[in-house]
Amino acid sequence: xxxxxxxxxxxxxxxxxxxxxxxxxxxxxxxxxxxxxxxxxxxxxxxxxxxxxxxxxxxxxxxxxxxxxxxxxxxxxxxxxxxxxxxxxxxxxxxxxxxxxxxxxxxxxxxxxxxxxxxxxxxxxxxxxxxxxxxxxxxxxxxxxxxxxxxxxxxxxxxxxxxxxxxxxxxxxxxxxxxxxxxxxxxxxxxxxxxxxxxxxxxxxxxxxxxxxxxxxxxxxxxxxxxxxxxxxxxxxxxxxxxxxxxxxxxxxxxxxxxxxxxxxxxxxxxxxxxxxxxxxxxxxxxxxxxxxxxxxxxxxxxxxxxxxxxxxxxxxxxxxxxxxxxxxxxxxxxxxxxxxxxxxxxxxxxxxxxxxxxxxxx
Length: 363
Prior knowledge:
The chain is an alpha+beta fold and 363 residues long. The protein has two domains: 6-133, 3-Layer(aba) Sandwich (Creatine Amidinohydrolase, Chain A, domain 1); 138-361, Creatine Amidinohydrolase (Alpha-Beta Complex), CATH 3.90.230. 36% of the residues lie in helices and 21% in strands. Helix 3 (62-69) links the parallel strand 3 (53-57) and strand 4 (74-77).
């Protein structure tokens, strides 16, 4: 089992700094602060050079910073509301000129840095950071595993809770309550509850629509544990399914199972996307599967790599990826089924344990 220390993560980032002839990387995003410094505060920044590692934050989080990052970072408290100014002053003192920044840095924040450092050049480094974060260690996988365990529990609960007459919002709120009750610190932001004809919307957010007998109910949700996201989708039917509902569900289920058989170390993402896509296409529904077969996740809900036609990344042990084929028929409804797997040396570990058989809700 692989455990990657904060020291090793900083070392990997320093390698990227050297290879790109940078003087430093400056990190503002909460996810990357957490990854490289184990710092959970909602405000702060890291400055990492070949020889220095500095964490700046304000009074609210200074104790958190000192307790989580003392051995790896010099912790500096900055005045409230002056994060960018303090970062700029620190970089000026360090005589930094070629600086790596994240794409998520707001334009206003970048303008402040450029004003303080008029001779500096800024280069986006997200791709290098994501290359480092692509391989999860066992501590990260354990957080994701716990999140999926919570999703499994929530799905088991919701199949006994669902009944005609409920609104999509009621179902979503119940799922959120159950997940948080079992230890989730939060849920993924693009929580999807879509029923009836609305289940054809891949990312249909919950509405006041009332669930009726005969509806598919597509539920795509995820529990967040220690900063790490999970992703889980199941589609159920209210009352006895029609032949067409059985057909569509069966095709998506086959696409999922055949894809899972092929996913593993050494496989290319774009080739795996074609495995699931070809099954749906050969069944006559190719134009109704418009998203990728899957994506990685971690401290962000969508990370690299992705199983899409344009991504030729080769899967390696330690990568975590969803497998989520779907069929979406406008005005009729849709089905998506999703598992979350870890790439291992000899295959995959499927973290999702919930049943994939079509659940018929007769409550």
